[in-house]
Design goal:
The chain has 96 residues and is mainly α. It is built from 5 helices and no strands. The N and C termini lie far apart (99 Å).
């Protein structure tokens, strides 16, 4: 049996993949399932790390570079550090 030339076999493979894509719409299914899967995986990891509170998500977004410069970034208090503990200013600690 003679082997098919490369151009014919590539065009047959392309036609077969195009037919399967049109018939099954797997790319649409993957586009719908991918956000669900990534959310499920990140939620499972957050539960495993014991960081599944919405506070941790807000904290991560507030301290990240792209989200840290949001329009509401001026509302962050300078006397509260990343861990959420309050650092008292010297003027507050010293009496009158």
């Amino acid at each position: 049996m003679a082997a098919l030339p490369l151009t014919i076999s590539l065009s047959l493979a392309w036609a077969l993949l195009s037919y399967l894509r049109a018939r099954t719409h797997l790319d649409n299914d993957l586009a719908l399932l991918l956000p669900f899967l990534t959310t499920a995986i990140s939620t499972a990891l957050a539960i495993k790390r014991d960081k599944h509170s919405p506070f941790y998500t807000l904290e991560r977004r507030a301290t990240s570079k792209p989200h840290g410069q949001s329009p509401l970034s001026h509302l962050r208090r300078p006397d509260v550090d990343v861990q959420g503990s309050v650092r008292y200013r010297a003027s507050i600690r010293e009496p009158g």
